[in-house]
Amino acid sequence: MRTGWRLGVILLLFAASAMVVHRVPAVKAEEILPVDPHEKLSVRRTYRKGGQLAWVSVALFVGQDVESRRASVNKIYPQHGVSLVEPVSFGLSLPGSPATSVTLPAVIIHHQDSHRLLVAYWHQIGNRIYGGEYRFRLALMRELILTRSVDSILVRIATPLGTGLSDANERAIVESLAPSIYAALHREQVER
């Protein structure tokens, strides 16, 4: 599994660059979506399509049978300079997922300097998506008991809110990137 995931994350670089018009170097994804010290391999990119902007992070966590290598709950979204973290639901369809519609965990981050970010994310073990921290942790424990070793991926997509676009247009880039990212990872798992 480890080789397949690494190849999938690397191939995602090329698949993601075809999803949007071009990459923008203005604000680095690392500044928006914090790096987890337990990541084994990750891809972070900033994308712009028309007036829409998104930061994407796909991180691989290997050998989570050791607690010190597990993804940290505190590193999913930025916490420095944040005045409020507001949980929201974000439902969308992901191709090839067991259920046709998935509700992804998402939060709206209110920064002290008054800008806001929508951060949608999911954990993935194999081709299964976990739309919540508790379900992911339970699945992780189940896999550790059955297989003794688990690799997982954390996918995060952030976009600014309050940019002058309608709410639907601000969220549209997340709605277009999430299925494409999932499909690229799903194809890699099926092909290996």
Radius of gyration: 16 Å
Kindly state the number of beta strands: 8
Q: Quick check: average pLDDT?
A: 73
Number of helices: 4
Low-confidence stretches: 17-25
Number of discrete domains: 1
Gap from first CA to last CA = 9 Å
Please give the share of residues in helix: 25-40%
What overall form do the CA principal axes indicate? globular
Secondary structure elements and pairings:
Elements: H1 2-19, E1 22-23, H2 29-32, E2 41-49, E3 52-61, E4 82-93, E5 101-111, E6 116-125, E7 128-130, H3 133-147, E8 152-161, H4 167-191
Antiparallel strand pairs: 1-2, 2-3, 3-8, 4-5, 5-6, 6-7, 6-8
Helix pairs in contact: 1-4
Account of the 3D structure:
The chain is about 30% helix and about 35% strand. It is α+β, with helices and mostly antiparallel strands and about 190 residues long. The chain has one domain. Strands 1, 2, 3, 4, 5, 6, 7 and 8 form an eight-stranded antiparallel β-sheet that branches. The chain is globular, with a radius of gyration of 16 Å. Residues about 15-25 have low confidence and may be disordered.
